């Protein structure tokens, strides 16, 4: 087992206005999930975020639940919480890879997600990582979601979608050899 290292942690972001987070939890290992939620809730409360919690059967159901909520509900960010412990079959690899891939795809599409799904070799590793007084991976996932919410709000004020014009109002249309035009 690897030893403990120190890791740099960013301070929690300061976010103007109300922040709503949805924790999507797979309670397959109830005690581990409860510790992850406790750590995540403490960090969210420290940042002043409002939290709702929903449970789904397992880690594979977390990405679809977040996808639905991102389309159908009013949340700023999401925290995925659960635990996958290696067993005797390759099912572990499928659950780890597919749940992670699903969350990554959602994130790449602009959904603010903190991934707190533990993928471990044994229960002892899970207990240390989930413990709010230990590695507090639930708290880390909440902090990650909050950082992404802060970034999305910062960048939303600077939308550069279709019709973006640089400061100064001049731009060049592709293929235009006559020079620039004024907006």
UniProtKB/TrEMBL annotation:
Catalytic class of the enzyme: transferase
Keywords: Riboflavin biosynthesis, Transferase
GO molecular function: 6,7-dimethyl-8-ribityllumazine synthase activity
Matches recorded under InterPro entries: LS, LS/RS, LS/RS_sf
Task performed by this protein: Catalyzes the formation of 6,7-dimethyl-8-ribityllumazine by condensation of 5-amino-6-(D-ribitylamino)uracil with 3,4-dihydroxy-2-butanone 4-phosphate. This is the penultimate step in the biosynthesis of riboflavin.
Highest taxon in the source lineage: Bacteria
Pfam families in the cross-refs: DMRL_synthase
Active-site residues, record numbering mapped to chain: 91 (proton donor)
A cellular component term, taken from the record's GO annotations: riboflavin synthase complex
GO biological process, one term: riboflavin biosynthetic process
Name of this protein: 6,7-dimethyl-8-ribityllumazine synthase
Record's keyword annotation contains Transferase: yes
SUPFAM superfamilies: Lumazine synthase
Recorded catalytic activity of this chain's protein: (2S)-2-hydroxy-3-oxobutyl phosphate + 5-amino-6-(D-ribitylamino)uracil = 6,7-dimethyl-8-(1-D-ribityl)lumazine + phosphate + 2 H2O + H(+)
Pathway named in the protein's UniProt entry: Cofactor biosynthesis; riboflavin biosynthesis; riboflavin from 2-hydroxy-3-oxobutyl phosphate and 5-amino-6-(D-ribitylamino)uracil: step 1/2
Binding site for 5-amino-6-(D-ribitylamino)uracil: 28, 59-61, 83-85, 115
Keyword Cell inner membrane found: no
Coiled-coil blocks: none
């Amino acid at each position: 087992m690897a030893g403990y290292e120190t890791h740099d942690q960013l301070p929690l972001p300061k976010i103007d206005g109300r922040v709503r987070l949805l924790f999507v939890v797979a309670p397959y290992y109830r005690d581990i999930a409860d510790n992850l939620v406790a750590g995540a809730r403490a960090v969210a409360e420290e940042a002043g975020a409002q939290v709702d919690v929903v449970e789904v059967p397992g880690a594979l159901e977390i990405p679809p639940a977040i996808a639905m909520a991102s389309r159908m509900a009013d949340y700023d960010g999401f925290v995925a919480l659960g635990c996958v412990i290696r067993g005797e079959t390759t099912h572990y690899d499928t659950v780890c890879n597919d749940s992670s891939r699903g969350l990554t795809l959602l994130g790449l599409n602009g959904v603010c997600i903190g991934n707190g799904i533990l993928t471990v070799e044994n229960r002892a590793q899970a207990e240390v990582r989930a413990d709010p007084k230990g590695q507090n991976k639930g708290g880390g996932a909440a902090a990650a979601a909050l950082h992404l919410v802060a970034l999305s709000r910062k960048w939303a004020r600077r939308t550069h979608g279709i019709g973006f014009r640089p400061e100064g109002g001049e731009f060049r249309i592709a293929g235009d050899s006559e020079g620039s035009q004024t907006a």
